[in-house]
Amino acid sequence: MASFATHILVIPFPGQGHIAPLLDFTHHLLLHAADSLTVTVVVTPKNLDLLQPLLSFHPSTAISALVLPLPPHPSLPSGAGAENTNDLPPDSFFSIFSAFPGIQGPLLRWFATHPFPPSAIISDLFLGWTHHLAEKLSIKRFVFFPSAAFAASVCLGLMTNSYPLPKTESGEIDINAVLSVSDTPGQPEFFCWQLLMAYKRFVYSDGPFKANYTANHSSWGYIINTFTGLESVYLNHLKTSLGHDRVWAVGPLFLPTVDQVRSDPVSDNILSWLDTCRDSEVVYVSFGTQNMLTQEQVNVLALGLEESGVRFVWKFKEPSLGHVEDQDLGKLPPGFEDRVAGRGLVIRDWVSQVSILNHRAVGSFLSHCGWNSTLEGLVARVLILTWPLGADQYYNEKLLVDILKVGVRVSQANQNLPNSDHLAKVLRESVSQSTYKEERARAMQLGKEAIDSMNKDGSSYKDLEMLVQHLIQLPKPVSNYNLFMC
Ligand SMILES: O=c1ccn([C@@H]2O[C@H](COP(=O)(O)OP(=O)(O)O[C@H]3O[C@H](CO)[C@@H](O)[C@H](O)[C@H]3O)[C@@H](O)[C@H]2O)c(=O)[nH]1
């Protein structure tokens, strides 16, 4: 490792939708920094594979892995070695969130014995504890958001203002009442049921989630996978609320350029099938790597796809390690795949979503509105049909449908579940060029702006350049290495 370069420690959260964008960010950081930065990435053993492409692409002087075991947790299935939310039930997120701070001890020892210790930590938004670690080490922590500036603004608004939730006459929380987050630009409104999780985490509780968000708030800088053309209002709002302008919009981080698209046998088969389809006639359906549909939701969706007659590819997430039998996790209705054979593909393996979305045959994307999928859908310029299931997905849906007016609302978790006739109609219309013309035109425009923002002199390109300059100028901590070597 070169002693003149500034050393940065990157720590992703072990979830697919979190690791991938932070590694994509690290790739861009190194491309922009030439040899003035070196990066160490912390990964658990079973996630090391995800880092390999980066380790192969960049010289070993620029990037290295620090492999630390995932600390145990009573709720994580032991012995099978699953260390990523993609391979675990949705609840595992909380177990990993609780267990992961246990790597602090090994990290502190690594830092103390490193000849050129890092000047900064760049870590996922669910690793608020790294802010305190950075303070202990007298270095800076930058929080990386794989989610939107709008979502960050709403969470900040809820946390700092504690708007009271409307109550029914009997004193219960009125989950169907509407609450306006009035300090966020545009005063977005949400149903109380959409905000309950956020309220439990950072308004009513003094638990670890609130501490996490408070630590993020106090961190030195915000790095967000978004672009100015999409979210300038919320980026500016964050700067004002945080009281500084160390907020960098550096996305969309994963672009489907020729040399980047992830190729594998499963995706290649699907791409061959898509080659046989007409332009924009296929609906791609996916609900991300963490959430799973209930049986009721699967039934409605399967029936809607059947009735619609459209061509489709459905990435179907099967129950994985540690799923409990009695959890309401949807299975496909018997005979469904036979009935749609020839016009619909159900895929259970990992596929390259970016490659599929960018195929000319794909015209619309039924999505849970995870932020990575949202950006990928925009970049691919497909019509996004929204079906959020939890977390920040309601905020992303609001941004797409009500604010940017590029998305079409289909369902919201189990509330507002469409009937299959209505769903079939929307699916058909989503691949007919005569409907949703305004949404499509805006999606085309935003997709172009997204790609432009990452090109030389685009807004995200410039933010990355400025961030690199900021990082290079950080003071280098004094090493205790020689002390340890004596
Ligand atoms: O077979 C698959 C399945 C998924 N993906 C990729 O996996 C990512 C999924 O990310 P996202 O769409 O953000 O969904 P989640 O996996 O659900 O992401 C979690 O993390 C996001 C970022 O914080 C949040 O916005 C979501 O609500 C949260 O569930 C995307 O890049 C997809 O392209 C594939 O490439 N192939």
UniProtKB/TrEMBL annotation:
One Pfam entry for this protein is UDPGT
The catalytic activity of this protein is classed by the Enzyme Commission as: 2.4.1.360
Recorded catalytic reaction(s): these are:
a 3'-hydro-2'-hydroxy-beta-oxodihydrochalcone + UDP-alpha-D-glucose = a 3'-(beta-D-glucopyranosyl)-2'-hydroxy-beta-oxodihydrochalcone + UDP + H(+)
UniProt keyword Kinase, yes or no: no
Which GO molecular function entries does the Swiss-Prot or TrEMBL record give?
A: 2-hydroxyflavanone C-glucosyltransferase activity; UDP-glucosyltransferase activity
Question: What general EC class does the enzyme of this chain belong to?
Answer: transferase
Q: Which UniProt keywords apply?
A: Transferase
Q: Which PANTHER family match?
A: FLAVONOL 3-O-GLUCOSYLTRANSFERASE UGT89B1, GLYCOSYLTRANSFERASE
What is stated as this protein's family in its record?
Belongs to the UDP-glycosyltransferase family.
What is the protein name stated in its UniProt record?
A: 2-hydroxyflavanone C-glucosyltransferase
Give the lineage: Eukaryota, Viridiplantae, Streptophyta, Embryophyta, Tracheophyta
